[in-house]
Amino acid sequence: MKDILQKLQSGELSVENAEKMLRNEHIQELEDFAKMDIHREIRTGIPEAVFAEGKDDSELVKIIKSCAANGGIIVTRLTNKRYEDIKDELSVLIKDCFKIDFNPKARTLTIKTHEVEKIGKIGLITAGTSDIPVAEETRVIAEESGCEVLKSYDVGVAGIHRLFSQIRLMMDENVEVIIVVAGMEGALPSVVAGLVDVPVVGVPTSVGYGVGKGGFTALYAMLQSCAPGIAVVNIDNGFGAALFASKIINSKNKNK
Questions:
Q1: In a domain, 11, yes or no
Q2: Helix 2-10 crosses helix 15-25 at what angle (to 10 degrees)?
């Protein structure tokens, strides 16, 4: 982009040709199966991310290599088995000094060329240990978006006395958003929102018995919360919660 603008300024390019090049430059087509938005992070502040499910291994490897060459990528919902299957093909990226990190619990793969600038702090809480995989996806994405994450797992309403010291710690550390991950009856975000003066993001998980199975009971409970100041994302959507929280912090930073 800088090269195009410099050529425009020097008169080497016409306005029409510069406009055409800028339009074409931000999309990278990979054969007939993908069109990569390589300027997404510049435009929106959200790192380029790829959902692994539904893509075969060869397609996924091509997408990863293409995005890594343009500054980095986050791959979500990548199982340990699939990562092991493609790991050798990605070894060339390590030689090119890319930093590669696979988190099997979060099912995420991150590849980057530079350290992310810190933008603020968020708190991350789970109701139970079964909610940790979704919370770990949240943590990875939040950190890749520049957030420092203070986490506290397994502090749900079944033993609510565990929660209060963790809330106090997070507020003392000046977190700007708290993300609460909960399955079963999904009560924890309402409790947290009634105790703090920062936005709370509820993440319902598909953890539970009977009518709670699949996460809909938790989702409905969070949507029906009587505590104000809660936003709710989709079931198991740790990715969306992390990016929503980072956008809140980015918006605050712009107004400072």
A1: no
A2: 180
Q: Name the 3-class secondary structure at 195.
A: coil
Residue showing tokens 């890319």: 98
Between these two residues, 136 and 116, which has the higher pLDDT value?
Answer: 136
Domain count, the chain: 2
pTM to 2 decimals? 0.81
Q: Are residues 245 and 128 in the same domain?
A: yes
Positions of E strands within the chain: 27-30, 34-37, 49-51, 72-76, 99-103, 108-112, 120-126, 147-152, 177-182, 200-204, 230-232
**CATH code at 148?**
3.40.50.1970
Question: Higher confidence at residue 28 or residue 1?
Answer: 1
Region class of 231: left (phi > 0), else alpha (psi between -120 and 50), else beta: beta
Q: What is the CATH number of the domain that holds 39?
A: 3.30.110
Going by C-alpha positions, the residue among 144, 145, 139 that lies closest to residue 238 is 139
Nearest partner of 169 among 152, 182, 157, 186, judged by Cα: 152
Is 153 a residue whose pLDDT tops 80?
A: yes
Predicted pLDDT of residue 125: 96
User: Is 212 inside any structural domain?
Assistant: yes
Distance CA(246)–CA(37), nearest Å, equals: 20
Are residues 161 and 211 both part of a single domain? yes
150 and 176 both lie in a single domain: yes
Would you give the distance in Å from CA 25 to the centre of its chain?
A: 25
- Residue 79, domain extent: 31-112
Q: What are the φ and ψ backbone dihedral angles of 200, each rounded to 5 degrees? A: -120, 135
